[in-house]
């Protein structure tokens, strides 16, 4: 199945088994940079490394057996489906004892990783999802209007209309007066066509709630068309497409480029606003240790992370507070447990508390603050 929605991620994030542990498997399968054979080798290495790690884990027999079954099923996936697998990345989520199995095709390569944990490791999915926006590409000429939905580098035509607008008056006509009258008549038709198209765009928006609108039309019509758009649409208008793009893959390429530039801009602005808040000693913190502290006390408003940043850490089994290196929970006075990736735990903790998580692609201004930061509530 393709990774295609926030709901998919939320369902996985919400998966809990009272007694069992889960397996999350991520593989970079980007064939632009690697051969099929290299992908197969990384798959095997990752699996073998997982088996060794699992043998050494101090878990009860039932939990261990379920994880072993997960690895066996992943190994079968490797022989049966991996050779024909197309996609930049593969994610597998499994919990044999609870009958969970989900393999996903990712539009971006994740880092190779295999996690055993109580909850599924969904952070790579969130980080990928955060890169994309739901875009509506609206293409318009004198007779026709077409709409495409673009999401995660896929394009789909969603609607189109045709209007009966008479062609342009090419000559002056037999009398100047007559020609002007015809022009006005055509303008009225054209205006009607644009108006219809603008209304249709709003209807489509009400249905699919896209984040951004990219408009492709001739420059001479642009201001007319824009002025006819509903204010909700005008504030989502973020990109200009070439008016003559007809082939969907061409529109997709153009839109993806604009999206990439807009995202880079947005991330840079986020990192910048965090860094200026930090520099003036405002409502923000940086560094993993400080962020974990503020997350434990529920003071965080937005968590800001560098993509793919990971670090070992510790968790209190009683209150679930997160620590970088405290061997004993200062609140409960019990021994903390080691976790493979405390950044992953912090994302889960944030999601549980309904705290938004934003990502920044390295290198960025965030690097000098320990790759992680947060805006605080107060
Ligand atoms: Zn505790």
Verbal overview:
The chain has 3 domains: 6-129, Translation, Eukaryotic Peptide Chain Release Factor Subunit 1, Chain A, CATH 3.30.960.10; 135-264, Nucleotidyltransferase, domain 5 (2-Layer Sandwich), CATH 3.30.420.60; 283-376, Ribosomal protein L30/S12 (60s Ribosomal Protein L30, Chain: A, 2-Layer Sandwich), CATH 3.30.1330. The longest helix is centred in the middle third of the chain and has 33 residues, at 176-208. It has helices spanning 6-13, 36-56, 61-80, 123-129, 176-208, 219-228, 231-234, 248-279, 288-296, 342-352, and strands at 22-28, 89-95, 100-106, 113-117, 135-140, 144-151, 154-162, 212-216, 237-241, 284-286, 300-306, 313-315, 322-323, 337-339, 357-360, 372-376. It has 10 helices and 16 strands. The chain has 378 residues and is an alpha+beta fold. A hairpin with a 2-residue loop joins strand 6 (144-151) and strand 7 (154-162). The structure holds zinc ion.
Topology:
Layout: H1 6-13, E1 22-28, H2 36-56, H3 61-80, E2 89-95, E3 100-106, E4 113-117, H4 123-129, E5 135-140, E6 144-151, E7 154-162, H5 176-208, E8 212-216, H6 219-228, H7 231-234, E9 237-241, H8 248-279, E10 284-286, H9 288-296, E11 300-306, E12 313-315, E13 322-323, E14 337-339, H10 342-352, E15 357-360, E16 372-376
Parallel strand pairs: 5-8, 8-9, 11-15
Antiparallel strand pairs: 1-2, 1-4, 2-3, 5-6, 6-7, 10-16, 11-16, 12-13, 12-14
The structure holds zinc ion.
